[in-house]
Amino acid sequence: MAYKLLVVDDERDIVEVLQDKLTREGFEVVTASDGKMALVRLENDNPDIVLLDLVMPEMNGFEVLREVRTKYREKWRPVIIISSKNEFESVAGCYDLEADLYLTKPCSFYDILAGIKKMTDILSIRENNK
Fold first, then answer.
1. What is the C-alpha to C-alpha distance for residues 125 and 121, in angstroms, rounded to an integer?
2. Domains defined along the chain, listed by start
3. pLDDT, tens digit, 9 for 90 and up, residues 74-128
4. How many distinct helices (H) and strands (E) make up the chain?
5. I want to staple 53 with a disulfide (CB 3.0 to 4.6 A). Which of 9, 58, 118, 120 is the partner?
6. Which residues does 89 contact at the CB level (< 8 Å), separation at least 6?
7. C-alpha distances in angstroms, 129 versus 3, 123, 124, 125, 126?
8. Kind of pairing, strands 49-52 and 4-8?
9. Model-level pTM greater than 0.70?
10. 1 falls in which pLDDT band (50, 70, 90)?
C-alpha cells in the first residue's frame, strides 16, 4: 500500500525537494504552502500522514495541528512537525496538541524518512488489528 503524505511548508524549495524524494521512495505526495490550504488538502485528499511546518502565513502549524486533532478524531492521522522553532515552548506545545514527532530544521532527509517509517509501521499495526 502506498501511503499518502501531505507536506505543508511555505518554503517552496523544501516542498519540492521533499515531494521529489518522497515520491521516489514510493509515497503519494500532496502539498500545501500554508495552513488554510493544508486544511483543504486534508479534507479533499485524505492523507495518511502530515508533515507540518509551524511558521507559515494565513494559519500557522499550531492552528493546523489543533484543527486536525479536533476535526479528524475518528481517524488517527500521524502529524510530524518539521520546524526551525527549537525552543522548549514550541516543542512542548506541539506535543500538548498531540503531535506524533517533532524534528528541528535543518534535519536530514533520512531523519524525516525514519519518522515516516515509524508512523507507517504504527498505521500498519493499527489496520491489522481492526
1. 6
2. 4-128 (3.40.50.2300)
3. 778 999 999 999 999 999 999 999 999 999 999 999 999 999 999 999 999 888 8
4. 5, 5
5. 9
6. none
7. 18, 10, 9, 6, 5
8. parallel
9. yes
10. low
